[in-house]
Amino acid sequence: MNIAASKTNSWTTVSTDSQLGERHILLRRTPIVDRSSGEVFGHLSAGVILDDNAGLLTSLLRGSNSDDVVLTFRTEIIASSISSDDNYTAESALQGIENGKMDLNKILVTETLYLSAANHQI
Protein backbone atom coordinates (compact mmCIF):
# COMPACT_ATOMS: atom_id res chain seq x y z
CA MET A 1 0.00 0.00 0.00
CA ASN A 2 1.43 3.36 -1.02
CA ILE A 3 0.07 6.85 -0.45
CA ALA A 4 0.95 9.12 -3.34
CA ALA A 5 3.06 12.19 -2.59
CA SER A 6 0.17 14.38 -3.70
CA LYS A 7 -1.85 12.98 -0.79
CA THR A 8 0.62 14.22 1.83
CA ASN A 9 -1.07 16.01 4.73
CA SER A 10 -4.58 14.94 3.75
CA TRP A 11 -6.73 12.03 4.83
CA THR A 12 -7.32 9.37 2.20
CA THR A 13 -9.39 6.20 2.31
CA VAL A 14 -7.98 3.10 0.70
CA SER A 15 -9.28 -0.40 0.24
CA THR A 16 -6.83 -3.26 0.64
CA ASP A 17 -6.94 -7.05 0.85
CA SER A 18 -5.98 -8.75 4.10
CA GLN A 19 -6.16 -12.21 5.64
CA LEU A 20 -9.56 -11.17 7.01
CA GLY A 21 -10.82 -10.02 3.61
CA GLU A 22 -11.06 -6.54 2.15
CA ARG A 23 -10.43 -3.75 4.66
CA HIS A 24 -10.98 -0.01 4.39
CA ILE A 25 -8.44 2.27 6.01
CA LEU A 26 -8.36 6.00 6.63
CA LEU A 27 -4.73 7.09 6.10
CA ARG A 28 -2.69 10.25 6.50
CA ARG A 29 0.95 10.86 5.60
CA THR A 30 2.75 13.83 7.19
CA PRO A 31 6.33 14.91 6.52
CA ILE A 32 8.84 15.01 9.39
CA VAL A 33 10.79 18.24 8.90
CA ASP A 34 13.98 19.48 10.59
CA ARG A 35 13.03 22.88 12.04
CA SER A 36 16.44 24.42 11.52
CA SER A 37 17.18 23.27 7.95
CA GLY A 38 13.69 22.61 6.58
CA GLU A 39 14.93 19.24 5.35
CA VAL A 40 12.36 16.44 5.20
CA PHE A 41 13.75 13.48 7.16
CA GLY A 42 10.90 11.13 6.38
CA HIS A 43 7.18 10.74 6.68
CA LEU A 44 4.89 9.68 9.50
CA SER A 45 1.97 7.55 8.33
CA ALA A 46 -1.07 7.04 10.51
CA GLY A 47 -4.13 4.94 9.80
CA VAL A 48 -7.43 3.79 11.22
CA ILE A 49 -9.24 0.65 10.10
CA LEU A 50 -12.84 1.67 9.41
CA ASP A 51 -14.46 -1.77 9.09
CA ASP A 52 -16.62 -2.57 12.13
CA ASN A 53 -14.71 0.02 14.19
CA ALA A 54 -16.86 0.17 17.35
CA GLY A 55 -14.76 2.94 18.93
CA LEU A 56 -15.16 5.17 15.88
CA LEU A 57 -18.91 4.50 15.71
CA THR A 58 -19.27 5.37 19.42
CA SER A 59 -17.34 8.63 18.93
CA LEU A 60 -19.46 9.55 15.92
CA LEU A 61 -22.67 8.75 17.81
CA ARG A 62 -21.67 10.90 20.80
CA GLY A 63 -20.24 13.74 18.72
CA SER A 64 -23.23 13.97 16.39
CA ASN A 65 -25.97 13.27 18.96
CA SER A 66 -27.35 10.67 16.54
CA ASP A 67 -29.33 7.52 17.19
CA ASP A 68 -27.37 5.47 14.65
CA VAL A 69 -24.39 5.76 12.34
CA VAL A 70 -23.66 3.86 9.12
CA LEU A 71 -20.26 4.03 7.41
CA THR A 72 -20.12 3.18 3.72
CA PHE A 73 -17.30 2.89 1.20
CA ARG A 74 -18.75 3.48 -2.24
CA THR A 75 -21.91 1.36 -1.97
CA GLU A 76 -20.63 -1.14 0.63
CA ILE A 77 -21.67 -0.87 4.28
CA ILE A 78 -18.46 -1.28 6.30
CA ALA A 79 -19.69 -0.39 9.79
CA SER A 80 -23.03 0.27 11.45
CA SER A 81 -24.35 0.98 14.94
CA ILE A 82 -27.82 -0.31 14.00
CA SER A 83 -28.66 -3.33 16.13
CA SER A 84 -30.97 -6.27 15.53
CA ASP A 85 -33.30 -4.70 18.13
CA ASP A 86 -34.02 -1.73 15.82
CA ASN A 87 -37.05 -1.90 13.51
CA TYR A 88 -34.82 -1.18 10.47
CA THR A 89 -31.50 -2.33 9.07
CA ALA A 90 -28.60 -0.34 7.67
CA GLU A 91 -29.51 -1.64 4.21
CA SER A 92 -33.18 -0.64 4.49
CA ALA A 93 -32.31 2.81 5.82
CA LEU A 94 -29.87 3.49 2.96
CA GLN A 95 -32.29 2.12 0.35
CA GLY A 96 -35.12 4.24 1.75
CA ILE A 97 -32.98 7.37 1.62
CA GLU A 98 -31.75 6.58 -1.90
CA ASN A 99 -35.25 5.86 -3.22
CA GLY A 100 -36.77 8.89 -1.49
CA LYS A 101 -39.18 6.64 0.44
CA MET A 102 -37.97 7.55 3.91
CA ASP A 103 -39.28 10.50 5.88
CA LEU A 104 -36.14 12.64 6.13
CA ASN A 105 -37.82 15.02 8.59
CA LYS A 106 -36.89 12.48 11.25
CA ILE A 107 -33.45 11.56 9.89
CA LEU A 108 -30.30 13.64 9.47
CA VAL A 109 -28.15 12.33 6.63
CA THR A 110 -24.59 13.57 6.32
CA GLU A 111 -22.34 12.42 3.53
CA THR A 112 -18.80 13.42 2.54
CA LEU A 113 -17.65 12.47 -0.93
CA TYR A 114 -14.55 12.99 -3.01
CA LEU A 115 -14.53 10.99 -6.22
CA SER A 116 -11.26 9.65 -7.52
CA ALA A 117 -10.23 6.62 -9.55
CA ALA A 118 -8.67 4.78 -6.60
CA ASN A 119 -9.26 6.79 -3.43
CA HIS A 120 -11.89 8.66 -1.51
CA GLN A 121 -10.75 11.73 0.42
CA ILE A 122 -12.31 13.19 3.53
Q: Mind sketching the topology for me?
A:
Blueprint: E1 11-18, E2 21-33, E3 40-49, H1 54-64, E4 70-73, E5 76-80, H2 90-99, E6 120-121
Antiparallel strand pairs: 1-2, 1-6, 2-3, 4-5
GO molecular function: phosphatase activity; protein histidine kinase activity
Subcellular location: Cell inner membrane
InterPro entries: LuxQ-periplasm_dom (IPR015387), LuxQ-periplasm_N (IPR043056), Sensor-like_sf (IPR029151)
Keywords:
single chain, 122 residues, alpha+beta, four-stranded antiparallel sheet, 2 helices, 17% helix, elongated, disordered C terminus
Continuous helix count: 2
Q: Could you state the order of secondary-structure elements as H and E?
A: EEEHEEHE
What structural class is derived from the secondary structure elements? Answer: alpha+beta
- Please summarize the sheet with the most strands: 4 strands, antiparallel
First-to-last CA distance: 18 Å
State the share of residues found in helices, binned by percent: 10-25%
| Secondary structure tally: strands | 6
User: Mind telling me the C-alpha Rg?
Assistant: 18 Å
Strand residues, percent:
25-35%
Rounded average pLDDT: 79
- Overall geometry comes to elongated
Taking pLDDT < 50 over at least 5 consecutive residues as the criterion, the unreliable ranges are 113-122
Main sheet: which strands, in order across? 3-2-1-6
